[in-house]
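Run log, item B.
One chain of 50 residues. Sequence copied directly from the ordering sheet:
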Amino acid sequence: METIVRVDGKDVPLNEFVSRILAGTISGAVTSLRGVGEDWNRIEIEVRRA
């Protein structure tokens, strides 16, 4: 899996450990949701500060 993190439009470099932790955590959480299969191709998450 490839993990990309952007903050305010700028890519944040990730080492392999952090990339694997984020990818595993996010994909595990999302695939456990009803209606999301194991065969997903891309997950996008956007977090905005209010």
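Observations after the first pass:
- The mean pLDDT is 95.
- The chain has one helix and two strands.
Flagged for discussion on Thursday.
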